[in-house]
Design goal:
Elements: E1 2-11, H1 19-37, E2 44-49, E3 52-61, E4 67-75, H2 76-79, H3 88-97, E5 105-109, E6 112-121, H4 126-139, E7 160-167, E8 170-171, E9 175-176, E10 179-180, E11 184-186, E12 195-197, H5 204-210, H6 217-233, E13 238-239, H7 243-252, E14 257-262, H8 272-283, E15 286-289, E16 295-303, H9 310-336, E17 351-353, E18 357-358, H10 359-377, H11 381-390, H12 398-402, H13 409-417, H14 422-430, H15 445-464, H16 478-490, H17 498-506, H18 518-536, H19 542-550, H20 556-569, H21 576-591, H22 606-621, H23 628-633, H24 638-648, H25 656-674
Antiparallel strand pairs: 1-3, 1-7, 2-3, 4-6, 5-6, 7-8, 9-10, 11-12, 13-15, 14-16, 15-16, 17-18
Helix pairs in contact: 1-4, 6-7, 8-9, 10-11, 10-15, 11-14, 13-14, 14-15, 15-16, 15-17, 16-18, 21-24, 21-25, 22-24
């Protein structure tokens, strides 16, 4: 027999940005708990709203199956002493099983005759297991900061108000987080303030909808989309959609009602990014544009109730929105009165990090790193210096102090208003790209250089003062910074030695007592992230990855290109003979790992002479600049020659000199093919 099971944890308003993570973790942990208990179940549907986390599981088994348990112990030799009586090992095994030695049996195993403990685990009712499974699942939720309430000893993400646990039509008896389970839930605070008594677990979603709660997170999200579309059709508007904001708003409301509001068109003179930040960050409203992408003096809000007077709701939001946009307008106009370059002096008053100095100190380091990179990338040195010099100036502007998410964006706008070079203006915005996983990279080379210098400076500085990431803790987001460095190098086409860049960055921290293992730690951290980057990108040759990582080369661009070329090369039909021969050659060299010298004068067999002549000729023609795939394809003709050599010549000759020179030739071919000399090492 099976029933539908429903559990709902009713709380005070949950943190909206954490709601999805909480319900996903709750679902995962509950499923794991059911599986561990041996309980079968069907589909699981998750529900999450500002005041509840709920799971509805269909076809949950009424009980576990009876199990036969068999536990093997020590062998007869170990379990009995010389007199045939139980030894300490035998008695210890019986004690751990909770029985006397006489209650154990003997059985045959791969180790001979051994002691065995056999017992039956009786079936257990699901209602006896569920409270413990639920409690354990709640304890494992990813809650960064818990709360206590009343005089309870326990804590949770928010105070818990009710606990609903139904198995079909029956209450599952339990006491969790200080509450006894019941069949009562609650609807919308305004529209349905009275309790809802559920007859059975199946009634949950429909009962809540009648009480003005859309319990499904995805259902509320889709309703917002659909209702917003209707609103926009009336004004021929386009939703400037923000997925993160949409999810946050979905987590704030239980009964979403999208409404349109307006603001004075004079505010459109303020940069669009600033208007959007004011709408989204503080008011949780969506900006709108026309079909041409021009911003409209309107916004989309999502109310949490069906008001009898929606105009009053709209007017209230418009009043608050007007105040926020007025602030943005004031900050913008005030900032424009001061050229961006005149803000540089204020950077000395703002701390970058207590031990790493001020923002002005950081800017000086960025100037040095940017010039170094500009020389490597053949970018105008003056522009690189100017971009680095102005890179943090907007952080002390009124607008960015109020709206930190506009850093870089306002830098570009203010630099352009100050008459700075257009390439410099663009770099000021692009220095923060990529901001998150999958984000776009800077389009300009100057932007790539500044973005790379900024991340490397931060990474080296934080490592230098001993605050590198540990376990799951990464307060300075250094893992994300390193992924940014990898993407800027590999996807941005920067063939630069990042390890050398680390060394250049260390020079900017001469006032610190740098740890002796700093360089090693940075390299290890970078190579760990590089392997993860390759795996995420779908690379499959783990053996080759490890070999490339072992080179400890800092030119991630060339390493990645070579890895891609090798994977492409390995799938070419014409390369199969060569790859097969190389595998044999590599296995041979690995059995005799040392460096060998080639004395071609000792070659006497036709197969080895032909191979050496062909390889010597090939070495003169190899050109790395053509690209790794072309480089690798040049080796294809050697495939049949290597096979003939390995088949016809006794490599492991009795003559030491001949054996070493033959192994030396095989070794040199392997090294030349597997480890090309990277350009710009």
């Amino acid at each position: 027999m099976s029933e539908m099971f429903l559990v709902e944890i009713g709380t005070e308003e949950l943190p909206p940005k954490s709601l999805l993570n909480l319900i996903q973790a709750f679902e995962s942990e509950l499923k794991s708990g059911l599986a561990a208990a041996g309980l079968s179940y069907g589909a699981c549907q998750a529900f999450a709203s500002p005041r509840r986390l709920a799971l509805q599981i269909s076809d949950l088994a009424a009980q576990t199956e009876e199990k036969c348990i068999e536990r093997l112990g020590p062998s007869r030799f170990a379990a009995l002493n010389a007199e045939g009586k139980p030894s300490p090992a035998g008695l210890g095994f019986a004690r751990t099983c909770g029985v006397s030695f006489e209650e154990l049996s003997w059985t045959e195993s791969s180790k001979g005759e051994v002691l065995v403990f056999r017992s039956k685990q009786a079936a257990r009712k699901v209602e006896d297991l569920l409270p413990g499974i639920i409690e354990q699942a709640l304890q494992k939720l990813p809650i960064s900061k818990t709360m206590r309430w009343a005089d309870h000893e326990f804590s949770f993400v928010r105070p818990v108000s009710w606990l609903l646990m139904l198995l079909g039509a029956k209450i599952v008896p339990a006491e969790i987080l200080g509450l006894k389970s019941d069949r009562i839930t609650w609807g919308h605070r305004i529209h349905h303030p009275s309790p809802i008594v559920l007859a059975s677990a199946q009634d949950y979603e429909m009962a809540l909808e009648r009480a003005y709660v859309l319990a499904s997170f995805e259902g509320r999200k889709q309703k917002i989309r659909a209702e917003a579309k209707k609103c926009l059709e009336a004004i021929s508007g386009v939703w400037i959609e923000n997925e993160a904001l949409l999810e946050e708003v979905t987590a704030i409301v239980e009964w979403p009602v999208p409404l349109l509001g307006s603001f004075d068109s004079r505010f459109l003179s303020v940069p669009q990014a600033a208007l959007i930040s004011a709408m989204q960050g503080h008011q949780k409203c969506f900006a709108l544009s026309n079909a041409s992408g021009e911003m409209l003096p309107k916004f989309l809000m999502v109310a949490n109730l069906e008001s009898q007077d929606p105009e009053a709701v709209i007017c209230g939001n418009e009043r608050v929105m007007r105040a926020r946009l007025s602030d943005a307008e004031f900050f913008y106009q005030k900032d424009l009165k001061i050229p961006l370059s005149e803000r540089l002096a204020r950077l000395s008053t703002v701390s970058f990090q207590a031990k790493l100095g001020s923002l002005q100190d950081k800017v000086l380091r960025l100037i040095q790193l940017s010039q170094y990179l500009a020389e490597k990338a053949k970018v105008d040195l003056q522009k690189a210096q100017r971009a680095a010099e102005l890179s943090k100036a907007d952080l002390v502007s009124e607008m960015v102090v109020e709206f930190p998410e506009l850093q870089g964006i306002m830098g570009e706008i203010y630099a352009r208003a100050s008459g700075e070079n257009e390439a410099v203006c663009l770099a000021l915005r692009e220095q923060y790209f990529p901001r998150f996983s999958g984000d776009a990279l800077p389009e300009s080379m100057l932007g790539k250089i500044l973005a790379l210098a900024d991340r490397v400076d931060t990474l080296v500085g934080i490592f230098a003062i001993g605050l590198k990431p540990t376990g799951s803790k990464d307060p300075f987001a250094l893992r994300r910074a390193m992924i940014g460095i990898l993407r800027l190098s590999i996807e941005g086409g920067l063939s630069i030695n990042i390890f050398e860049l680390f060394r250049q960055a260390q020079a900017g921290y001469g006032h610190l007592n740098l740890p002796p293992d700093l360089e090693t730690s940075l390299q290890h951290f970078a190579l760990e992230r590089l392997k993860g980057y390759w795996l995420d990108a779908g690379k499959e040759d783990l053996e080759l990855m490890e070999e490339l990582l072992a080179l400890k080369s800092g030119n991630f661009y060339e390493l990645s290109n070579y890895l891609s070329a090798r994977e492409t090369f390995s799938k070419l039909p014409e390369a199969q003979t060569f790859l097969r021969a190389m595998k044999r050659a590599k296995n041979l060299i690995e059995k005799f790992p040392r460096n060998y010298q080639v004395d071609s004068a000792l070659f006497s067999e036709p197969a080895e002479k032909v191979l050496w002549d062909a390889f010597s000729s090939l070495k003169k023609e190899l050109i790395y600049s053509k690209g790794h795939l072309d480089y690798l394809q040049a080796f294809v003709p050697l495939g049949s020659l290597i096979e003939s050599f390995l088949n016809e010549v006794t490599v492991l000759s009795e003559s030491n000199a001949l054996r070493e020179t033959r192994l030396g030739m095989v070794q040199e071919i392997c090294q030349k093919m597997r480890f090309p000399v990277f350009s710009n090492p």
